[in-house]
Amino acid sequence: VSRGLPIFFLQLHLLQLGYVDIVFANRMDANSPMEEIVRAMTYVINQGMAMYWGTSRWSAMEIMEAYSVARQFNLIPPVCEQAEYHMFQREKVESQLPELYHKIGVGAITWSPLACGLITGKYEDRVPDNCRAAMKGYQWLKEKLQSEDGKKQQSKVKALQPIAERLGCTVAQLAIAWCLRSEGVSSVLLGVSSAEQLIENLGSIQVLTQLTPQVIQEIDAVLGNKPNAKKESRA
Description:
The protein is built from ten helices and five strands; from the N terminus they run H-E-H-E-H-E-H-E-H-H-H-E-H-H-H.
């Protein structure tokens, strides 16, 4: 961890920033004592280089340990976890993180709301030549899309189309709004390749108010993968 601090200083300099709003500790390092990690993040904040710190791809147990260490030594605890979350990846955000949200106030910043583009419906018939799955280094995505599970997921995306049409939105907007409605989700990270995509994705905010419990039940019936733990929705 101590070796990583000079790198962070350099990154701030290269970005021409005096500080960042939040810095994430990506993936827990089993070889680094938790106290060292929390002290390093506390130092970064106390030096004015960041306002908050969060975790990324940490387990609920690891986040709770960081919080306990912070309380024990009067240090600064993490405020959020960055986690993958979309209609086909629900377990962590809906079953594990809500307990932390209620107990210690740790929220979630989620990524990949469209499952690498699968939920847009653009892979329904084939893999387009100009999409991410056709790019060098993304063979894993192409194989995933063409797998049996991938085809089943694409059929479910197609089944969501009537719900989206009834709400006057695209399936992509529906999927992003669906992520936003989840308890404890502070924000959803978007990845776009054009201004048009960004504008479309931002339209999901208008859809959020239409996600009534009845609509959520319809979506869950299509997906068929709702975690067993009890959930509450903002809808």
